[in-house]
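User: Hey, quick favor. My workstation is busy. Could you predict this chain's structure for me?
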Amino acid sequence: MPGVGFYLNQKLLNAVKSKAKKERVAVSKIISKALESYLFVDERRLAKEKLFRLIVDKHPLGGKEGWEKLHKERTMEDENRN
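Assistant: No problem, here it is.
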């Protein structure tokens, strides 16, 4: 991978270094993951919208109401697992 130089304010740099030390990963990996998340946020949002339209339009789970009911049920099950 090519090296890149840029500036961070001290507070942000300290936060990144702290997270890197805590998680035992390289600072560059944290920065790379953050940039990937930032750059591909629109693609993920569009994919979520496409999935939601499919669920609502095709009604495989009972449309929006069925989806919300299923989501609520699964969320409660996840909470009860702990």
